[in-house]
Amino acid sequence: MIRDKxxxxxxxxxxxxxxxxNLANPSKERxxxxxxxxxxxxMNEAGYIxxxxxxxxxxxxxxxKYYKEGEELxxxxxxxxxxxxxxxxxxxxxxxxxxxxxxKPQRQDEYGTSVISIQINRVSNNISIKNRYNHKxxxxxxxxxxxxxxxxxxxxxxFEQYFKLKEIKSSKDFDYYRYVxxxxxxxxxxxxxxxxxxxxxxxxxxxxxxxxxxxxxxxRFLVMDxxxxxxxxxxxxxxxxxxxxxxxxxxxxxxxxxxxxxxKDENKIVIITPSKGKPIYIGLNKYxxxxxxxxxxxxxxxxxxxxxxxxxxxxxxxxxxxxxxxxLDSNDSLTQLYLPRVKKIGNNLLCCNxxxxxxxxxxxxxxxxxxxxxxxxxxVVNAPKLLHVQPNNKDNTVRVSIxxxxxxxxxxxxxxxxxx
Length: 420
Fold this sequence. Notes:
Layout: H1 10-24, H2 39-45, E1 48-50, H3 57-61, E2 84-91, E3 115-121, E4 127-130, H4 155-162, E5 179-181, E6 187-194, E7 197-200, E8 204-207, E9 212-215, E10 221-224, E11 227-230, E12 235-237, E13 255-262, E14 268-274, E15 280-284, E16 290-294, E17 300-301, E18 314-316, E19 322-323, E20 336-338, E21 344-345, E22 358-360, E23 366-367, E24 380-382, E25 388-389, E26 392-394, E27 397-399, H5 402-413
């Protein structure tokens, strides 16, 4: 299950192996400080307000106000207190910690740790400390390495004593991005986490709060990103009716035929023949991430298209006219985007992408806010008809996007007005 070293980070694999060895040979002594102080007193010393344990759904929802739209925890989807004990801690100066001041989010930065949710599984006693950025950063569910001692010494013991908990189980130094511990006590490499489900390589899904492994029959199903292709019924499916949260499946339409080609390097090409239009091509890497998507049929793309995809680096949508909100919001692999017929794009276009260097949209007339929000490397914007760019408004301030900067630059040279 250990991923090969294609990322060039050998230390990750060494860390993984060392952690597995530590599990097999656990130390008898826990490195925690014993204290007579309460969790509330300790968190106060650490600069936080620790709120009472959430007992109701209303208690949980009361903290949603602290999260930027699109970065809300899955915890807010409901019923988390049934499987976990849940606390929220908020920095005392939270009102002074503004999201727009953190253009390159880091899990342990001031914003990411300004609002945390401490959650302990009712069955396993495993702890997870959730980050305010949520999935805008790597491994957001392991803030402070899931170690209360890293917030302030003595907090582990204080939690156990005050809240009458059994020994809290923490992975501590294990921060291996893209691996998660399943309900069968095995580690799995995951591609996408959505609504408490981890979509893993080899047709495996870790389902729900207990991370129960679901291994789907490869002769019938093919898991890609968080989509499940049923080759027998010739249709895509998503767990828990998540079709309403992602319009990818709608861009496919009715399927007449499916052809899966396996390459020597374990990559796959899925060729979908729709009932109307030209074949659709989907490329997958060996982990099941979607890396390529070619669709010449779709003209309107609704909100949240492939919102959780990270790996797509080749995209062709030559006939799309309108694109909704949150288009490839989490993607950070595309380096160029060509949309020859698109006229209107909603907000959060490639919001988290930091690699796109070229945007070509010759017929684009309207672009909504927060597009390429974190991008600093865009070099070329070819959008001669784009005269209206919605500004990025945050708390009554305006941050001009890099797209606007390039357009203003280009249009000033060509004596064209641009409306902000």
